């Protein structure tokens, strides 16, 4: 049996001669538990928002996207791109052409991002799942070019779900100079018609900027015949995603950039990760403050047990063993507090996931969720437990060692 641990456990749960020591020990444990609970809940809320945003992107973004490193476009018949599209793991490959343009409907206008795609775009992404309206997915019929507007684009242009008149799209010509006497000659003008549906990704980046149309329209508008802005890929079910991505990057070399869904939204997720890191750091500082209560509790305990220390030394306990008794005492307080705090934090997360106890206040109903989203990640729970135990151990080591030397002496 570990003698110092046995004595420390007895000290922790036994009555002291001064009742205040029990109260302070309980407060110390509660402080660690509350700080631990805050870490669990806060990081889980950040995970919830992260997963929620990721779920929106997957309905629109491809699994993998290959874009040129230099310039806006690359030749569609580039042998490198052909090899990538012909890989056995690739289920769907779509060529795209996209650039900025001006959209005008009636007396309203707005800058938009025109994205021209091939007919298999609905097989590449889950675009059909985010369509709203009474029409159907359609990008071209005979000589008529159709465009699916983002719901916020339609709102800014005042088109509604179905617009009777075509939306006029203007893009500057790639060659020649702009004649200020007749500026309209410096632009290419094309019309797109309504298929009776809009897309709603629930992200302003897409809903407020994008218009999806066929690639032929985009090539005419931007004068990009035989060119592509990107190759978007969907892999076959069961394919090793990471291995395939590595293989495609090997084929692409330094000429093309290969991005998965998270890398396509790198800025958004980087900001979210930084916010989560900052929250973790601040709450860890609060945890350190809570651990100072343990120092006060141990100091009073060591004074209370001064006679016991003399008895233990007479029974043959070494100075090192006596010091370890109080070290174990502080560690037990931090470990028990960590376990209680983690359990309570997980319970609160489950209640929030199940019942949505904490809503978004006055903003409830204005967003896609009415309550704070929560997602518990096992690696975060492990990190929290390690952090709490490590901070607790470090916080008590020097004070206990210092006071123990004075007590034993």
Description:
- This protein is an alpha+beta fold and 409 residues long.
- Helix content is 52%, strand content 19%.
- It is built from 13 helices and 15 strands.
- Strands 1, 3, 4, 5, 8, 9, 10, 11, 12, 14 and 15 form an eleven-stranded mixed sheet that branches. Strands 2-13 form a two-stranded antiparallel ribbon.
- Strand 3 and strand 4 form a beta hairpin.
- Helix 10 packs across helix 12 and helix 12 packs antiparallel against helix 13.
- The longest helix is centred in the N-terminal third of the chain and has 39 residues.
- The radius of gyration is 32 Å and the shape is elongated.
Concise structural overview:
This protein is an alpha+beta fold and 409 residues long. It has helices spanning 3-13, 19-57, 79-85, 121-124, 151-157, 204-207, 215-222, 241-252, 261-264, 266-304, 306-314, 319-355, 378-408; strands at 64-68, 74-75, 90-105, 108-117, 131-133, 140-141, 144-145, 147-150, 167-172, 187-192, 197-199, 210-214, 227-228, 230-235, 256-260. It has 13 helices and 15 strands.
